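U., I forgot to send this yesterday:
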Amino acid sequence: MIPVNSVLQVGHFPEIMQAEIDRRLTPIRHLDPKAPAPAGNFEAILIRSNTKLPEALIKQIPSIRMVATCGVGYDNLPLSYLKEHGILASNTPGVLNDAVCELAIGMMLSLMRRLPESQEHVKSGAWSKGLFQLTTTLAGKRVGIAGMGRIGQDLAKRLEPFKVDIAYSGPNPKQVPYTYYQDIRDLAAACDVLFLACPATTDTDNLIDAKVLEALGPSSYLINIARGSVINETDLLYALQHKKIAGAALDVFNNEPNPNPAFLKLDNVLLTPHIGSATLETRVAMTNLAVDNLEAFFKQQALLTEVHY
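Result:
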């Protein structure tokens, strides 16, 4: 059991997630992370991965010993401060793989087959005046994945039936049957479609820049299901505007929920509002895993999915 009022819930949670939280514990809600911390001897914080946890807030609560974040990413946490003060952290990997991979495949096909535009072609009545433009097939293409972690490997398995050749990049080769490229530029040059499924770290900050986009080339596509920070958006906008690449599908951006308005003016992009894990089933599973980690902490057991930073 988690002691009453021992957990500080920071930020807003969607209704379905909040219901699951309230079913399993009694947290104190702190909706504005930038506001002064409420009084209390909180031992743990519960937060979503899209809510930034200010270091200043934790400093106001010296009793905090654990942070549970709902989401696979943990770049929202002040990791240096947590490490320095021996504060544990957990995330929720694995349970969102299906939803994220489903969206990634859907975005790729929608971008390459121009599904939003084809629907508008029918709805607007344009079909009666002329055929829709020809698009590009996926079969026979080489697909690259930057980041062959849990999501990258699940994505690759889903891509195999599409009759594609799969390659990947990352810090080190993995025990997978795909071609490995150590340099992201070499991977981009070899691929027709490039997925970004890597974590947001200092090593991946602006990983996709003008040189990588130039290597990707004018007939190739970029799909980002990672984090906005992985792409240099200035370089990407230039590449899209000048047709340096065929198109991009983006679920994440540098400035969410207000992405650069220049993206909205392009006809070679597919944009979604960071909905990779946004299914009812996934959000419930994420919430329960986060609470399971909290329960393990209060039972003085090993965390189920601890973040090792």
